[in-house]
Specification:
By secondary structure, the protein is α+β, with helices and mostly antiparallel strands. The protein has nine helices and seven strands, in the order H-E-E-E-E-E-E-E-H-H-H-H-H-H-H-H. 50% of the residues lie in helices and 15% in strands.
Length: 255
């Protein structure tokens, strides 16, 4: 996708900055990028007719199976209930590509199954069943190792369960992997930096402080006030910092 067109797709299809645009197909008559399909890591954004400007959003976990019939993809949920359908012109300019449409249907099903597993993962995290959640994360990472959110969830599970003596090192590795893969603007980046800060509090308060400062520069989830959270952590960290000030080498104290 041409970088000059990305902003137009985001505006016209209601795509947030933290969403990764994976594919875009403009079906408008004058290349206005206000009709067609945009696929992101969150789902499929569709505008069928730019004169109506009705935006349809098909989330990855909205469907379970995809069937090909009459040059269209039909999406169904796990109970077999119809969800939506898309003509192949939303995906290809060349209409004689039936075999590619079948491959696309299988790939969409694969992503949908992954989304279902991630929903189960989030439910387990919400119920604080971290050992079960860790099993799902490890299973997903075998196939989706380039997904920053999974590395973030793994660090969170390990932090809660501390399964072995090396857990702090594993948390550090997983959070750095997550930071290298998450899209700029993702609220989980804030959580990663905060997690790194907490991981270093008992080892090097100065490195912890640097990560706290990095965290304060990042967006945070709507359900927590960043300043309230950070002030509380920094208050505790500052007390420990003053108590052990001379224990650290000068170069490690510099910001």
């Amino acid at each position: 996708i041409d970088d000059d067109h990305v902003d137009s797709y985001r505006t016209n299809f209601g795509i947030e900055d933290y969403e990764d645009i994976l594919f875009a197909r403009d079906t408008s008559s004058f290349d206005s990028r206000d009709e067609g399909l945009v696929i992101t890591n969150w789902g499929l954004n569709v505008i069928r007719d730019n004169s109506k400007r009705e935006l349809e959003f098909i989330k990855w976990y909205d469907f379970y199976s995809v069937k090909v019939d009459d040059d269209q993809l039909y999406f169904y949920d796990k109970e077999g209930k119809y969800v939506s359908n898309l003509w192949k012109n939303f995906f290809f300019k060349n209409y004689s590509v039936d075999y590619r449409l079948t491959k696309l249907a299988k790939y969409f099903e694969k992503i949908a199954r992954r989304a279902e597993e991630e929903i189960e993962l989030l439910k387990l995290l919400d119920k604080e069943e971290y050992l079960k959640a860790l099993e799902i994360v490890d299973l997903l990472l075998k196939e989706w190792d380039d997904d920053g959110s999974l590395h973030f969830y793994k660090a969170k599970c390990i932090h809660r369960t501390s399964p072995n003596n090396n857990y702090e090192s594993i948390i550090d590795t997983e959070l750095h992997k997550a930071l290298s893969l998450l899209t700029d603007g993702d609220p989980r980046i804030y959580e990663c930096y905060k997690g790194l800060a907490m991981n270093y509090e008992s080892k090097n308060i100065w490195i912890a402080r640097k990560y706290y400062i990095l965290a304060m520069e990042k967006p945070v989830s709507a359900d927590v006030t960043k300043m309230e959270s950070m002030l509380s952590d920094l208050e505790t960290e500052s007390k420990e910092e003053m108590e052990h000030y001379i224990d650290y080498e000068y170069k490690s104290r510099k910001l």
